[in-house]
Amino acid sequence: MTVTSLDSESQLREMYPTSRDILNELHSEGAHVRHEVNATKLERYLFHNDGNDPVKFNRVVFNFPHYVAGGGVGNKDKCNKIHRHRQLLLNFFTSASQVLAHDGQIWVTLCAGQEETSLETKTRSAGDTWQIVHCAAAAKLLLQDAHDCPVDALADLGYYSVGYQSRDKAFWIGNGITNVFCHEATDHKPCFSIQWTRGISFWVTDEQLFTEDLLLDIIRKHFLIKTMTVSISLLDEYRCVKSGRKSVTYRFNILSFSLALFRDRVNTLVETHLDH
């Protein structure tokens, strides 16, 4: 087991009074303890097993991540920007996926209200969440499982929170949710799939030949049935008075139970195959 901290050992001992005993226990149990490790740049560090061979991890755990603007705990003048938290998650997932074993898992626990999944009890609009599933999808990771965080068990092990509003004050960890991510693969099914909606408009050159079934067949050639589910619906149609030509606008929904569909990936598919 490898345990890391962003802080130096001296900073850790100063911030967390119980850290000395915890570090001693980790060392006595044979854990590899490393300090000043940036979780968004894990691929830059050399991690080895007891035989000094490079390793990839079966599990990477990040409990209650949060972005701390310039200065860290005690800096009250910095705003808590939600897009910074999303960027932190995105950078972490991108990095962690590179040191994760093929069948490994990434466990990330968020506080209540930060989730967008169905387990969230403190529901908010999608724009007010950290959008963790979308951030992970950008690193081609699927949400494999999600469950309530065992906060009582963590407390028994000596865990306590600090950093509420960038102050030396505990934050609420009750009702937190632990999200389990894995590499996308045909045999990995997500418990929370991302659905995207896109619109396309075009002129119908042959009204006798054109049908919705034909359009759906064309779309499915590029959005493969084995990996994606696509449905379409007519939004609008228009006929030019002068030329008599007909144009149509369709909305199509894209869903996958084996691929991590992130925004850029979907946009590339649409622009490459349907915008011409």
From TrEMBL:
25S rRNA (uridine-N(3))-methyltransferase BMT5-like domain mapped to chain residues: 1-146
Source superkingdom: Eukaryota
InterPro entries documented for this protein: BMT5-like, Fdx_antiC-bd_sf
GO molecular function, one term: rRNA (uridine-N3-)-methyltransferase activity
GO CC term, one of those recorded: cytoplasm
Gene Ontology biological process: rRNA base methylation
Protein name: 25S rRNA (uridine-N(3))-methyltransferase BMT5-like domain-containing protein
Species the sequence originates in: Peronospora belbahrii
